[in-house]
Amino acid sequence: MAEIHRASTTAPVNIAVIKYWGKRDPKLNLPTNSSLSVTLSQSDLRTHTTASCSPAYPSSDTLLLNGSSQDVTGARTQACFRELRALRKSIEDADSSAPKLSSYPLKIVSENNFPTAAGLASSAAGFAALVRAIANLYELPASPTELSRIARQGSGSACRSLFGGYVGWEQGAAADGSDSVAFQVAPASHWPDMRALILVASAAKKDVSSTSGMQTTVATSSLFASRAAETVPRRMKEMQNAVQDKDFEAFGKVTMMDSNSFHATCLDTYPPIFYLNDTSRAAIKVVEAINTAAGKIIAAYTFDAGPNAVIYYLEENEKKVAGLFKAALGEKDGWAGQRGDAVEANGDAL
Ligand code: PMV
Which of 76, 89, 173, 234 has a CA between 20 and 30 Å from the CA of residue 82? Predict the structure, then answer.
């Protein structure tokens, strides 16, 4: 029987509280601004991926996602394969007894346990898991930082899913992207009582992909330039301080303002991009009502490139936030899965 080499891994979803929106280099996925996210618990939203390779496999690489065959010829996936193969090749060149895995076709099998491409950061978990699984298969000694540089080329936000806890992505300055990598702001254990309520307003695939949306925003929005040059750099500092100080009010305020700013640049794009819908706006109103009733910010909404809401809150406010949300929205039309799920925002470092 022909040899088959195999390795599996899981990677969690991350949800940004300072959004990545805009590429200064679309080929290398180099962003126009730094960003920051919270990695969710692997037991909740994650991609499970098995990578295998064998000289007996048909000659081309394959990728199966949730049972359906995906195109691997795109530049992003190819960039990840190429970088990982090059690292493996250097091991093989240095040690002639190492099996020549880099020359074998790859077979990747991935499963998401959440809706794909519905603004739930599926590509983030997907590329992080793909890169990590192949790195394990090739027995690469690569650090999460190095893997984040590779995963970034698959999908920008994927670089942040290589770390658990509170994670930044430094936009970097180098033209080759060598310094555009993720870093851990704080481990999950630093602020373990953070929770995320995911409200699935629509599980449908988003109509404007993040890649095409970003490029149109960069090209046409006049709000965008000040967001990238001034607003985000200031908020990156405020957010890192909020995490260090475990200051939920500051964390929540910056999270909501940054989501608003990102969706404002979408609306300011020509033609405009509408990711939020009436259901999303109802969620914003509920968060405002919760915070008004509490007399301070105890809940914070954020929306990616889709209508689904992610509500951050601390465990001590579970009843006031998740409980009230479920009561308020349980009866409302438009919430697929009716209630949404509360998940722990405390993925461990991979
Ligand atoms: O990684 P991409 O290309 O799917 O872009 C993700 C963009 C947002 O989710 C909207 C923001 C972010 O920082 O995750």
Answer: 173
Q: Return d(Cα 229, Cα 232) in angstroms, integer.
A: 7
What confidence category does residue 341 fall into, taking pLDDT thresholds of 50, 70 and 90? very low
Q: What does the pLDDT look like over 296-334, one tens digit per residue? A: 999 999 999 989 899 999 999 999 999 888 777 665 444
State the pairing for strand pair 106-112/62-65. Answer: parallel
Residue 163 CB neighbours (<10 A):
29
CA distance 197 to 200: 10
For the question of an ipTM over 0.95, the answer is yes
Angle at 168 between CA 254 and CA 342, to 5 degrees: 65
Query: Is residue 30 scored above 80 in pLDDT?
Result: yes
Instruction: Tell the residue number behind the tokens 């895995």, with chain if given.
Output: 101
Residue 249 phi, psi (nearest 5): -60, -45
Q: Is the CB of 155 inside a 6 Å radius of any atom of ligand 1? A: yes
- CB 210 near ligand 1, within 6 Å: yes
Q: Which domains are seen in the chain, by residue range?
A: 5-190 (3.30.230.10), 195-344 (3.30.70.890)
Ligand 1 centroid distance, CA of 67 (Å): 24
Q: Is 19 in the pocket of ligand 1 (CB under 6 A)?
A: yes
Distance 193 CA to ligand 1 centre (A): 25
CB of 346 closer than 6 angstroms to any ligand 1 atom: no
